[in-house]
Amino acid sequence: MIITTISDLSVQHDEALGLLRVEWASGQDMRTFRASAEQLLQLAKQLEVSSMLLDMNSFPDISVYDQVWLGTNWMPGLVKLPLERLVLAINRRRVHNQLAIDSLIALSRPFIKFDIQFFLTAIPGLHWLCDYSVRLPVLLAEWNAVHGTGPSAAADYLSELPGLYRPLK
Fold first, then answer.
1. Distance between CA 77 and CA 92 in Å, rounded?
2. For residues 22 and 54, is the Cβ–Cβ distance under 8 A?
3. What are the angstrom distances between the C-alpha of 100 and each of 20, 35, 77, 95, 121?
4. Where are any strands of DSSP class E within 66-156?
5. Whole-prediction pTM
6. What is the per-residue pLDDT for 92?
7. Which of 55, 79, 159, 164 could form a disulfide with 111 if both were Cys (CB 3.0 to 4.6 A apart)?
8. Which domains, from first to last, does the chain contain?
9. How far is Cα 169 from Cα 159, in angstroms, rounded to an integer?
10. What per-residue confidence (pLDDT) applies to 122?
11. Beta strands in the chain (DSSP E)
12. What confidence score (pLDDT) does residue 150 get?
């Protein structure tokens, strides 16, 4: 189900899988980031999600002030959720946010009880979160119907498998 109650975020929930998929939807405007992040925590708590995908490729660079706020205000709430798995989709070219995420994880490491995995893009991360469930094509179709496919899904998938893909000479 697509959830539209948090205006800055594109959110999808699947109750059967206990899954929450999240992408930033407000372009470069981060003025209401903190309020949206708080709403996301409340939603995840209310839905009792066990798996979450945060597509960090859609987020602008997170300011130092927001990084401090995340570490002191948001991460304590995240680690209290009944999460079992968290996927962070972030392209290796997003160095600023990768460093911010790494520092937040390091800060909260003693309190994190769930598995965290990194993927370059969302779709392979969803496969892992869903244990390759037969429900995944339905979830992807629902997402694509509302948000479109964005960059080519084939290109996203190939970026995850560099050893299997070689450009023609």
1. 27
2. yes
3. 22, 19, 18, 9, 18
4. 85-89, 115-119
5. 0.83
6. 84
7. 79
8. 2-160 (3.30.750.24)
9. 18
10. 93
11. 2-3, 9-14, 19-24, 51-55, 85-89, 115-119
12. 56
Of the chain, the end-to-end C-alpha distance in Å amounts to: 44
Write the burial class of residue 68 (CB in 10 Å: 0-12 exposed, 13-18 middle, 19+ buried). Answer: exposed
| DSSP H stretches of helix in the chain | 33-47, 64-69, 75-78, 95-108, 122-129, 136-147, 153-160
Coil, helix or strand for 91?
coil
Please give the structure tokens belonging to residue 133.
């469930």
**What residues contact residue 42 under an 8 Å CB cut-off, 6+ apart?**
none
The CA angle 70-54-130, to the nearest 5 degrees, is: 140
Tokens of 42: 């409340």
Q: Which amino acid is at 35?
A: A
Q: Which two tokens stand for residue 146?
A: 């509302």
Residue with tokens 């999808």: 12
Rounded Cα distance, 82 and 61, in Å: 28
Residue type (1 letter), 46? Q
CB atoms within 10 A of CB 26: 17
